[in-house]
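Tutorial handout. Part one gives the primary structure; part two gives the three-dimensional structure as tokens.
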Amino acid sequence: MKNFKRYRDQEIRFQDGITGIVGNNGTGKSTIVEAILFALFGLQGTGLDGNYIVSSFAGPRDLCEVRLDFGLDGNTYSVVRKFKKRPGSTLHEARMYANGRPFSEYAEGVQNVMQGIQRVIGMNPVDFKNTIYAGQRDLLSLLESRAGSRKEWFMRVLGIDFLKKGSMDELRAQIDGCEKEYGNLQSRIAELDADGAIKKQLRALEGELKAARQQADRIDREIADTGQRRDAALSERDRLQRAREEHIRLQGEEQACLAGIAVLEADMADLADQIAHIESSRTEYERLVSLEGRYQELRRLLPEIAEKKNEFERLTEKRGHLCDLLEQHEGRRESIRRDLDRLSQDEDLIADLFGKVERWKELEERLDRLRGVEPEYTRLREDLSRHEERFRHLENRVLEIRRDIAALEDKSLALASLQGEVSAYDELRAREEILSRAAVHAERVQACTEKIEEDAAQLRASDADLAALSRQCEGGDAVEQAIADREARREELAAEVSACAARRQAAHQELLKQQARLAEIVDAGADGACPMCHRSLGEQYADLVAELEEGCASLQRLLAGLETEHRRLSGERGSLVDELSRLQEERSRYRNLQEQIVLCRSKRGHIADQMAKRQAERERHASALREIGIAAYDPADHAALTEQLRELERKRVMADTLRGECARLPHLYEERRRYIHEVRDYLTEREAIENEIGLLSYDPEEIRELEREKRVLDAPYREYLNAQAELRQKPVYEEELETVSAKIAALHEEIREIDLRCKELAFDPEHHRQLSKEHQHAEEMHQRLQKLRFSMEQLPRLQARREEKHESLGASAEQLLRIREAMEALGFDDSQVSEVEEMVRSLDERLSALAGEAKAISGRIQVLESESGRLRQALARVEGYRRASDALLEEIEMLKLTRKLIADYTVYLLQVVRDRIEGETGRILGEITDGRYDSVLLDDDFTVLVHDAGEDYPADRFSGGEQDDIAIALRIALSRFLAEINGIHESTFLIFDEIFGSQDEERRNNLIRALRTQETYFPQIFLISHIADILGEFSTTLLIELGADQASRVQENG
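Part two.
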């Protein structure tokens, strides 16, 4: 516990056995149990006040925290709660752990943890306080509560209430659902199959379906016949088409053959041209063959000359590169020499400029001194400028004030004139407000009058509609009476038909019996014995046979009459049903008219109410007009008054504006006087600043003169500095000159060696160019020779192809002749194809028409089959509904029987529970009272009756201490029973707070002894007491003491 009531920071580990929690009053003994209650259930249902949970000595930011660890069924549970009551809000956090882990969905949140606790221990806060924990002044709560509420509590905590109410409600809901479903099924049966209509429709549909199928068969036969004739025409058309295709093929072959002949003739002409062209090149070919030797010789010489050419070009390129480097180095050497000459001139320049440089330095020092006093001079000049600017501002402001004063004095005169004109404004404004209110009321009166007239017109129309509908409904009562008469007659006919059927059945049975007796007697003969009396028939045989035959004939006549009567009654009932159907339709029409009358009357009532409201509103606005003293509102008068007020408002605004502007006059007079004093002060300050400027001896003109002279000397000074910087580079230039001269000498030597190498090569570029040109021409002749050689080699092949083409031309001419002979033999006529195709088209049209008829009749058959299927499905649904209705009736009876059995079982269960609690309570009470009271009864209201002196008495008959004993025994018995039904076989505990105050020493000892006997069932029993005599009776004692800081502390004594 941290900051919980009287405890600042306290941890308590409870031991098994009886633990006594002792201490003076007010030290916080009961607070320990309240902490357990708070940890388990929070504030809800525990009776704890959240305003007094947090310790009074806790800081503003401190939280109250309680942690409870407990074990149950081998599991370890922990509950942690944090609480803080703020002025505007409350912080309450709760967490629950099982075996060191968050407890599933109940791990966090006040409500979740509450549900988790109730799931684990099976109790809510009220159950806990009535069984496990008996607080101060709560020990007798079960004994003193009302009988009804006590029985309700016992039934709820024992689970019987849930069994009774929950199951009864569930069964009632199921019965209601079944009855509702049964009603729905009956309604569906009535809707789907009124008077067997489905079977009648099904028979009519089957007749139509049979006729449609016969028509479909006829169409199918005609389609088959037409199809055969069409197939024959198609065969003939196919034969003619094959002939036409053969004719077309032969024509194509003829054209192809002619085209092939033309191609062959063209190819032969082309081959002749190629052969002639090749023969014309034979002379050139022979000349080129003679030049081929020179070409081979040039190809051998050219590579040797090419190697010399490459080496010569490489040396020439290298010599050019060296010459470029030599030119660069010589240029750099000349540049260095020019730079050295320029440096010699800089030495002379430095000597010439020395005097000017000294003068420049002298001017720089003079300017530095004058710039030192320049800030003070600038500040004084700025002050003087600000004073002058302020003076100009004051001068301008004084002029403005003079102009404003003159203008405002003129406006004061205008203001005095306007004030007289607007004096009547308030009176006119009041009059205008009255007229404005009157305008609103008058407008509402006019609107209500218009609406009332509209409502009156609607009422007249509604009355006319009602009269018309009433006239139409005049025959409704007669229809209702006719339906009642017909239904009564239908019931009479049903009874008569049933009676007639019963009489017919009885007569038929009697006829069968008479016929059987007659047959037996005839079989027995005159010498036989009577089947009834077993005497000889003898002379009575003929009379008995005649009598039986007459009886059978009479019964047959009776059966014929009954059959005729039955048919007559059935026919009359059928006619009556048809008439009832017609009358019910008529009644539905009348009822629709009556509903329209009700709606019309409702609408008329609504319009009448609305009209009354509007009349009342009109009268209210008219009364308001009379109250403000206006009999008739004049909009023109109101508009004129409004215009007059608008003009006065404009003048009033103008007057208010002038009044506000004229209010500035006193301030302007005061401001003008103040500015005059400021001008005088300004003149004094300006004179003082001018004197300070004179003392500085600072002349801006002198500075400008010195700066002009210095700028003239700036260029020589910079030349002087540049010349000095250049002279510092002279040793570098001299060293670089020596390096460049050495490189130039080396380059000259390398160029001389390259010239010697070129001379040794003896390469002639001109000779090389001539050989290359000759080789190029020889290469072209060689390529031309190769082409001509290829053409000469092709000449025999071209001549052979020309011979082949000639032979093919002869074969094509022979084939063309054969094709033309075949076309003549075929004898094809195209007009025959047109005739056959016309016949096929005509037959196709007929087949298409027949197919349309077949499709139509097929669609009709499908529709009829679909409708028949639908009716069969509807009939099946009706049969299913009837079976379901029968099953529901059986289910309803079973559910009602189940409710009765559960009601009987709860009575039985209550008796069993009472017997068990009575026995355990009596045994514990006997241990506490040394056997004086060992028999306890619980009546039907769970009132405790204790047996004493041969009678059973209620608890309030006994003394206070005895009542405490009875309450303790009852609580222990209840706790054991609840632990058993909740499946808690260990880790259960009991808490009793101040139960020894009403007991004498003997009873206290008996009570402790009785509690020790319960340690088998309750391993931990906590007793809170302030009585010191019983300290030695506890297994463990927790001594509660109050510290100097007003915080309680716990000391454990074994």
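Part three, for discussion. The chain is about 75% helix and 10% strand. Residues 292-421 form the longest helix (130 residues).
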